[in-house]
Amino acid sequence: MSSSSYKFALKITRLTFLLIIFWLSSSFAPKHQYHVSVTQMKYDKPAKSFETSIRIFTDDLEKGLSEDNNKRIFTIKNNDQNNPFVERYVRKHFTLTNAQKKAEIQYVGKEEEADATWIYLEIPFSENPEGWKLQNSILMETFDDQVNMMNLKLPSGPKTFLYKKGQSVQTL
Q: Which of 78, 101, 113, 137 has its CA 20 to 30 A from that of 127?
């Protein structure tokens, strides 16, 4: 083999190796590079309750549940047996309180949709929400860059809140 053929073969081998490394590293990369949830919370005046839906990337939720349950592996699907784990996790990280009490959150269920999971809650509430504090620390213990956005619709008008590490509680 000539020197130029050897150099060419070496370049091809190096290029192939680099392409394989790139392909392998991208195959195991996260499905998304940001960690965000979106909560829609609407006050239903006739029912005197907040109707709440939280949209979370399913793989992020699975990882958060795993870390919250001694590294147990979770696979979120419709009709799975994970509702008690999801409910406990949400109750731990999503609370509505004032100086005297904590609002009762009713877990309605969850629904998987493409790459996200919707979690549905109902919060019976007959008081004026002004001055109440909402904690939304979902997945903040799992991802340092987690951002939880909330759109709140009150009779007085809409409000938007951002929750992130160090700012997981907002006053309504």
A: 137
- The token duo for 67 is 């870390």
The span from the first CA to the last CA of the chain, in angstroms, equals 76
Integer Cα distance of 87 and 54 in angstroms? 12
- What is the token pair recorded at 23? 């392909």
Question: Read out DSSP for 59-83?
Answer: HHHHHHHHHHTTT------TT-S-H
pLDDT per residue as tens digits for the range 81-104: 999 999 999 999 999 998 889 999
- DSSP at 102: B
Segment 37-88, tens digit of pLDDT:
999 999 998 999 999 999 999 999 999 999 999 999 989 999 999 999 999 9
The H-or-E segment that residue 139 falls in is none
Report the distance separating Cα 133 and Cα 126, nearest Å: 15
Token pair, residue 9, equals: 């073969």
| Domain locations along the chain | 1-30, 32-171
How far is 126 from 45, CA to CA, in rounded Å?
A: 8
